[in-house]
Amino acid sequence: MGIREDVVAAVNARDAARTQELLDRDPSVIGVKTEEGSLVLTAAYCGAGEVRELLLGRLPDLNIFEAAAVGKVDRFVKILESDPGMANSVNDSACTPLGLSAFFGHKYVARSLWLREERRSIAYRRA
Hints:
0% strand
């Protein structure tokens, strides 16, 4: 396995020490794409809280899906302020920001979206 596969495996295994070791060796692997979309989303889906926090400390910016999934309200609102259309965006897994925030139990992210005029978003949209 290469380092990209190794870091995905470490995140899936909820192994914060191994994840950190791999990120220290090659910081560019923070941007690796996963089945879930990103390492942060993979950590969120796996319930790997320690790994998620490690990744959040190293990422320069979260995208709207990552911000929704991990409950980063300030980042979420900042993205929507710069591009209101993102409220209705759908990721490769057919999830919307509202759907991710609800799934992961981040009511303040969901509420911040609901209070906006661009609230036409739905939790799931068929492709």
